[in-house]
Amino acid sequence: MVNMKKKGKGFTLIELLIVIAIIGILAAIAVPAYRKHVVKARMSEVVNAMRYIATALTIYRQDLSLVGVAWPDCPDATAIQNTLGLGIASVTRISAAQIDPATGTIQATLANIDGVVNGQTLEMVPNEAIDGSISWQWSGTIPMAYMPTR
Question: CA 83 to CA 118: how far, in whole Å?
């Protein structure tokens, strides 16, 4: 009989280093993508609050037949609550909100989201049609990667 030595079981150092390198490459791709999704998820609170303001503004103008007339003067969250009945002061991701009486633009200053967007503004600009309907367009100073699409 031939005596055969048993080969050691386990991984070699090279195999382990390759696995660690693959994990490192995957982490380098996944972490920035994860961070971007976290910022977008946190911004959804701001986006929803601004959509509520836009809806309330549209109803306010149509109920009062103010088509083509100036927008309400709401320089802060308290004025928005008093004029439109929306309590947005409890939204922790907005540090300030206002409505421009000349253009109807809703502007919110972002806070408590991420250093990439904190302190920047998100705006909804109204486009009023001849029939009195209003469509809203997003703009602001935040990076385009975080700008809402609809």
Answer: 27
Pairing mode, if any, of strands 94-99 and 106-110? antiparallel
Please report, for the chain, the start and end positions of each structural domain, with discontinuous segments joined by +.
14-146
- For residue 60, what pLDDT band results from cuts at 50, 70 and 90? confident
Tokens 């009486």 correspond to what residue? 101
Kindly report the pTM of this predicted structure. Answer: 0.78
Task: Enter the CATH code of domain 14-146.
Answer: 3.30.700.10
Q: Mind listing the pLDDT tens digit for each residue in 98-148?
A: 999 888 999 999 999 988 999 999 999 999 888 878 899 999 999 998 999
Nearest CA to 73 among 120, 51, 105, 121?
105
Residue type, 38: V
Supply the DSSP symbol for 72: P
Q: Any idea how long the chain is?
A: 150
